[in-house]
Amino acid sequence: MKLTLRVWRQKNADAEGSMSTYEVDGISEDMSFLEMLDTLNEELILKGEDPVAFDHDCREGICGACSLVINGDAHGPERTTTCQLHMRSFRDGDTIDIEPWRAAAFPVIKDLVVDRSAFDRIIQAGGYITAPTGSAPEAHATPVPKPDADLAFEHAECIGCGACVAACPNGAAMLFTSAKVNHLNVLPQGAPERETRVLDMVAQMDEEGFGGCTLAGECATACPKGIPLMSITRMNKEWLRATRKVAKQ
User: Fold this and answer.
1) What angle do helix axes 174-185 and 230-248 make, rounded to 10 degrees?
2) Rounded to two decimals, what is the model's pTM?
3) pLDDT (tens digit, 9 = 90+) per residue, 6-65?
4) Given Cys at both, which of 120, 126, 182, 207 links 197, Cβ 3.0 to 4.6 Å?
5) Spatial distance between the Cα atoms of 157 and 44, rounded to a whole number of angstroms
6) How many helices (H) and strands (E) does the chain have?
């Protein structure tokens, strides 16, 4: 395959960026999208040019590092992570636009790399449980109903990639935050911080400068792990419950 790549290049956080055009040839349809970028970078290095900076780690679709907007879609045309997107999803001769996440809370560091530490701070605000130190408790000491366990696992699948933010027309982080809140709030182990967790994490989300949610639904459509849109509704209920409980105290 021969492809034309239009890639966002930005030297650093303070520099102005622009799209640069590159031609790549000999691309196999069995390559992943990141392997295709590796091929481009090998050619740039041989020419003495600066390679394109992009985030990656596990390349197995579980770490959430590979954050790219491909032809206007978060992670590209398939509902998967960029590292699991294969070049068979494109055709010989295609022109592909490659950009970083676009959100005020995700400033560009260089080229396709953005600063997603805002997500880390949201988790730090309440994404934990009270756990006593010492020996591990008996596995069956705290029974969890099957529906609750399934719901917790569904939300625990969030890998924090940020596709929901990139896809949202408002740049909202509600789907990510709701996944982290609901994952723990539905479990008995998360009960001690149930109220403070949702209040603190939502407050931190707002402080980070993410946009407001209008339930456009693009976040759930782009999510590679299928976090449902109803997750946001569940978190809103948790927030109202916590607000009323705190007000009565």
Assistant:
1) 70
2) 0.93
3) 999 999 999 999 999 999 999 999 999 999 999 999 999 999 999 999 999 999 999 999
4) 126
5) 36
6) 8, 7
